[in-house]
Amino acid sequence: MELDVTDPEFVLEWPKEIFKAETLSLLKRRGNPADAFDFLLDEAFAGSTPASEFRMAVPFASGFGGGNPSAERDARALMASYLNQLGKLRVPGQRMPYWHESRLPAEPMKLTESLHVAWRLIVTDLEDSGYFYREVQPCVDGPSWEEYTSHMENKIMRTAGLQVKWPLQIDEDPVFQDENLFYGLVECLADLVARPRARSLHNYAECGWHYSDFYFPTGQAIYTWKVNTLFERYGLALALETQGELRGRLVRTTDASRQDLVERAARSPDASISGRVVTAVNQYRLRGATVHDKRSACTSLAAILEKRRPLLKEQLLSKDEGALFRIANEFEVRHYRAHEERDYDEAFLDWIFWWFLATVDLTETILERQNGAGSSISKKPTMT
Predict the structure, then answer these.
(1) What's the rounded Cα separation, in Å, for the pair 35 and 81?
(2) Which residues are CB-neighbours of 309 under 8 A, at least 6 positions away?
(3) Number of Cα atoms under 13 Å in the Cβ half of residue 299
(4) What is the Cα–Cα distance from 156 to 32, expressed in whole angstroms?
(5) If DSSP states are collapsed to H, E and C, what string results for the chain?
(6) Which of 27, 218, 284, 360 is most exposed by smallest CB count within 10 Å?
């Protein structure tokens, strides 16, 4: 199937990497995936055409596929074609700004009720799509709406110790009056959200869709993407982490180039090195990180550079190498000795962290090239 990328019906509402990951995950499963693909296309695209065309091409989708080998092959082939043409598809961010967006001053919005309303809308939309129904789902023949809401309130209390009303009540819940409680609730729901991969229509008394086969990673990815997009729009320097031990926790954000540096520096095949880098970055990016946290992060990176000092001495000019370790050893970063310099601004500590991280990235590049074709390299690190 050749996709018509000019058709607004074929605009992805999901980020491409999430759609790709979910599709690949479904392709790995046994059995006929037609129903799951039908559901995925219906949810991930802006219009209904992708799912409709899929149903026409695979007539045994939507609950009737059974064990039909031909339908299964057709479904898998069609979804593979979607992946092959993924680069052609547009995503929501690829549009011209609206009139008001292009004329308002580029200043961060205040943390006001409008942010709470926008975040609550994200939660409501996901709830309507079954993302919070993994344990209890309201039904005319089963648990009542009151039983479901009580379950959610108790789940949030047991998980995060937060007392809220469900559905969330912005005007009534104290959690929306306290910034720390609000951010805690944002993180809590990141641990509870799961995407349903199957659904069945319950027609009795217009009950609606029933959801099943819940999958945490995709649900968390969708929630994280939506929340991070919202926070970025409001100018908040916070985002939900997408990987590692801080996954689902809010961390301080950096610009795109520094984020790329973080990901590159942690690529070492040596688990002891990559683990230290991840730990250091997590310490540094913690929301509310103290000077001690930042200094500890710098210490972890300095330990990596000490281990690779012979490599740096070989590849860098002697003065560069000497200056690097003078900072580490004489500015109360590593040893906390009496003679070390302490009277420097916290911004200088931030500069040390990014310099050390960029140098760790440089050593990874050197080692990769030494283990590869032996290409020549620049002796000077490029700082971000």
Answers:
(1) 17
(2) 321, 325
(3) 12
(4) 36
(5) CCCCCCCHHHCECCCHHHHHHHHHHHHCCCCCCHHHHHHHHHHHECCCHHHHHHHHHCCCCCCCCCCCHHHHHHHHHHHHHHHHCHHHCCCCCCCCCCHHHHHCCCCCCCCCHHHHHHHHHHHHHHHHCCCCCCCCCCCCCCCCHHHHHHHHHHHHHHHHCCCCCCCCCCCCCHHHCCHHHHHHHHHHHHHHCCEEEEEEEECHHHCEEEEEEEEHHHHHHHHHHHHHHHHHHCCCCEEEECCCCCECCEEECCCHHHHHHHHHHCCCCCHHHHHHHHHHHHHHHECCCCHHHHHHHHHHHHHHHHHCHHHHHHHCCHHHHHHHHHHHHHCCCCCCCCCCCCCCCHHHHHHHHHHHHHHHHHHHHHHHHHCCCCCCCCCCCCCC
(6) 27
Q: Summarize pLDDT for 71-115 with one digit per residue, the tens.
A: 888 889 999 988 999 988 887 655 566 665 555 544 444 557 789
Task: State the CB neighbour count (10 A cutoff) for residue 48.
Answer: 11
Two tokens at 63?
A: 């609950």
| 337-379 pLDDT, tens digit each | 444 445 556 677 888 888 888 888 888 888 888 877 444 444 4
Number of Cα atoms under 13 Å in the Cβ half of residue 250: 20
Q: What is the pLDDT of residues 287-335, one digit of tens each?
A: 778 888 888 888 888 888 888 888 877 776 555 555 655 655 555 555 4
The answer to whether residues 297 and 283 touch, using CB atoms and an 8 Å cutoff, is: yes
Please answer whether residues 169 and 163 qualify as being in contact, where contact means their C-beta atoms are separated by less than 8 angstroms. Answer: no
How many Cβ atoms are within 10 Å of 117's Cβ, its own excluded? 11
Contact between 47 and 11 (Cβ < 8 Å): yes
Q: At what angle do helices 216-233 and 16-27 cross, to 10 degrees?
A: 180
* CB of 43 closer than 8 Å to CB of 222: no
Q: Could you give the CA distance from residue 316 to residue 378 in angstroms, rounded to a whole number?
A: 9
- pLDDT at 96 (0 to 100): 64
